[in-house]
Amino acid sequence: MAPKILGVGDVGVTKDPGGVLKTFALGSCVAVILLDPAQKAVGMVHVALPKSKTNPERAKQKPGYFADTGLALLFEQMADLGCDPRGKGMVVKLAGGAKVLDMDTRFDIGKKNALAVKKHLWKLGLGPVSEDIGGHHSRTVELDRDSGRVTISSSTGETWEI
To answer: 83 catalytic, yes or no?
Structure first.
């Protein structure tokens, strides 16, 4: 089965055997990965910015673009697959949040994205069991539904799992 490709601001979930979700070029963006072992369901959102209030019109068109609206949509879509809508029983992993373009850290969007995602998760009583956040390189993330593996490859050519 070909992977379902998620672009910036996209949300994807699957329960299908052989299902794979993949997103490319996470720089300052953050991928939030959910795995529900009981339901054999996985989901991912490619978050670009922390707060939807900065652009309400874009949030309506593409809620996954923002941490607050993107996570809400991800949990909603996971609930549609039979998962607990509050995320109970889910495994959470994070990747991205790099300083790719903003080397002087004036804006540090990657750090703000990671913090916004974590704050939203904490409100639900959840936290990541593993993460690959920060640094100065972009990442590609692949989530395999059957194995639950999250494989990351970087712009430097390295590959690892979280």
So the answer is: no
Q: Which residues contact 53 (CB under 8 A, 6 or more apart)?
A: none
What is the phi-psi region of residue 95: left when phi exceeds 0, alpha when psi lies from -120 to 50, beta otherwise? Answer: beta
Q: What's domain 4-161's architecture?
A: 2-Layer Sandwich (3.30)
List 6, 21, 26, 29, catalytic entry: 29
The residues spanned by each domain of the chain are 4-161
Kindly give the confidence (pLDDT) of every residue in the chain, 162 residues in length, as a single tens digit, with 9 standing for 90 and above.
789 999 999 999 999 999 999 999 999 999 999 999 999 999 999 999 999 999 999 999 999 999 999 999 999 999 999 999 989 999 999 999 998 765 555 678 999 999 999 999 999 999 999 999 999 889 999 999 999 999 999 978 899 999
Whole-model pTM: value is: 0.95
